[in-house]
Amino acid sequence: MSEKREPSVWQGFKAFLMRGNVVDLAVAVVIGAAFTNIVNSVVKGIINPLVGAIGTQNLDNYSSCLSSSCHGTHGIRLMWGSVLGATLTFLITATVVYFLMVLPMSKYLARQAARKAAREGTKEVVEVSELEVLKEIRDALVAQRGSGHDR
């Protein structure tokens, strides 16, 4: 009787690491980290100063007190400025990513797809016209044979 051997833990781990989706995920994480630096630099270096010219760059100090007095660590303080600041940072970052990265990339991919479709359409037209020419040649040969048999 032959006994089926289960793969070792090391072999299973090795197979897991060699899967294509794990390598793709690792590449995506590295590229995402580099991309995060670009987006953060645009937000911190350009967008935040523009927003700061209108209002303030740091909303963390804005809060409301729920208890009768809020001095130091005493009292219940709602830090709504931090939430508002994080929300604005998210919206600004999403806007920068969309308009500077996603939108141009989608337009580029749409142009590439249109060019590919145009090339394939031209190829189909050439194939159809060649087929039409071959049909005409066939019909002419049939007509010649038919006229030759009548004589």
What does this structure look like?
This protein is an all-alpha fold. It has three helices and two strands. It has a two-stranded antiparallel ribbon with strand order 1-2. Helix 2 crosses helix 3. The longest helix has 71 residues, at 80-150. The radius of gyration is 34 Å and the shape is elongated. The mean pLDDT is 79.
Number of helices: 3
Portion of residues in beta strands equals under 5%
What's the Cα radius of gyration? 34 Å
Would you count the extended β strands for me?
Answer: 2
Work out the helicity level: over 70%
Please name the defining characteristics of this protein:
mainly alpha; 3% strand
Write the layout of secondary structure elements.
Layout: H1 9-18, H2 20-54, E1 64-65, E2 77-78, H3 80-150
Antiparallel strand pairs: 1-2
Helix pairs in contact: 2-3
Summarize the structure.
The chain is an all-alpha fold and 151 residues long.
